[in-house]
Amino acid sequence: MGKYYSPSGGLPPQTHLTTERAIVTEAYTVIPKGVMTDIVTSNLPGFSNTRSWIIARPISGFATTFSQLIVEIGPGGGAPKAEFEAGVEGVVFVTRGKVNLTLDGELHQLEEGGYAYLAAGAQWGLENVSDDVVSFHWIRKAYERLEGYEAKSFVTNEKDVEPTSMPDTNDVWKTTRFTDSGDLAHDMQVNIVTFQPGGVIPFPETHVMEHGLYVLEGKAMYLLNNDWVEVEAGDFMWLRAFCPQACYAGGPGEFRYLLYKDMNRQVKLT
Q: Are 218 and 255 in contact (CB under 8 A)?
């Protein structure tokens, strides 16, 4: 497919202007693609020939329910066991290359657009057996168990999931849902949202779900709280719960992003 944006690292020259589009507020954060350089990467325990950009983690004034990493594995690299924290579920979405996923003893090959939901307690690892780097998003969340329900691991690809058109939008706004939003076994969703040129979110959404949005393709104007911010492929946005948001996709091509949200659980008060 080759259409998903993946960072390549590097370092700007000394003549490069320092001014960037990075924004950090109490309601939202924007991490533009231009700041994802070599010097802000982190190694991951248990992985070889691997680096990551950690773009969300639970800290005061930022994400509260999830972490998100962009992971790059070089040829021959990977981890026989990727998740060491008990009770943590995950999603892997591949944006470049191919990677072998071993999940509870079964081998799967994920290529661009590949999606894996990794249930809490699953045993899984990754290996890059190709001659090129592989890049993917890894979203992690502490699974909130609900009596009578249990989320199960699965592997698919975006191309095998039919997008759902939002009501009364003439197909200019679609969402690719990898899990059923009505399935209470799942306490989060990681979807792909697609806008055709001219498509909009026609009101400022204000809701309890926290969001992480990584722009896979295209550009748009995005309303974050009171600010209209121009974003493009490779940018990441974090939105706190109840942060007003809307979108206008002006084109010329599709505007697409990977969207995280927490859902389907009662608010804990004690």
A: yes
Contact between residue 141 and residue 66 where contact means Cβ atoms under 8 Å apart: yes
> How far is it, in rounded angstroms, from Cα 150 to Cα 187?
10
* Average pLDDT for the chain: 97
Q: Which two tokens stand for residue 35?
A: 């700041």
User: CB–CB of 235/258 below 8 Å?
Assistant: no
CA 40 to mean position of chain CA atoms = 18
Q: pLDDT tens digits for 255-264?
A: 999 999 999 9
What CA–CA distances, in Å, run from 78 to 20, 71, 138? 32, 10, 13
Reading the block at residue 261, the tokens are 């949200």
Instruction: Say if residues 60 and 76 touch (Cβ distance below 8 Å).
Output: no
d(CA 221, CA 203): 14
Percent of the chain with pLDDT over 90: 98
Cβ neighbours of residue 255 under 8 Å, at least 6 residues apart? Answer: 194, 195, 197, 199, 215, 217, 218, 219, 220, 247, 249
Q: Which residues pair with 260 in a beta bridge?
A: 190, 212
Using only C-alpha atoms, what is the Rg of the chain? 18
Alpha-helical regions (H) of the chain: none
Secondary structure (DSSP) of 225-255: TTEEEEEETT-EEEE-TT--EEEE---SS-E
Match 């248990």 to its residue by tokens: 46
